[in-house]
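Can anyone check this?
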Amino acid sequence: MDKKQYLQVLETRLRAGKVEDIEDILYEYTQHFDHKLADGFSEEETAARLGDPAAIAEQFLVADRPVPVRKPGSKVLLASGLGFLHILVGSGFLSLFCCVIVLGAFALAVFALGTCLVSGTNTAGLIPPMPWFGALLFGLSFFSLGILSTIGTLQLYLYTVQWIRAYGRWTRNVMGDGRYPPLSTTPHVGRRFSRFLRTTTVVSLVVFLLLCVSAAIALTIHVGFQPFWHALGWFGYTG
């Protein structure tokens, strides 16, 4: 069964059962196919891994069946409790988005600092004096740190968005007696992209550390095996 046949069977069964959010469900399984195809799997292999589309549709049919109606008083009490929880959890999500912004700004600042070091630009005298090879090594190390910060920003953003979606689905299940399948708290980015992020993170971290150590050793030798930050007058001390 290829992708088109799989999605057709799934859509037919879902529409026959009058399931809610059919387009969202179809989009989710279309994404599954796209991610697996990007990882090198065939459409037939992906269909086999996902399972029988009729059985999957049946799960949504079960989740979509009418549920017992709660008493009005309990419904109001539950909604009130969730309202307080929404304030706390919403504050946490807002804090996470602020962290995303701060981490992204840090990544941009690090890239800018690396560019200034490599190009020899010293805006407003903020960069301490050092020979060109030290500036070059430190500048390249900051590029590696910028890549690490960018990956961290992306990962934090993806997880925050997925946590918000999962929390929204959980809230919907609490109010609807578990009618909908829960969402994973881990974002799905595809196996190939996930490997790329892991590899880039490790390589960037190793390069950052090696370049920092190399710069420190080179500057120490250059100043005659003294603390180079003092010998170069970084803190107003020239020995």
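Reply from J.R.: I decoded it. Residues 1-65 form one domain.
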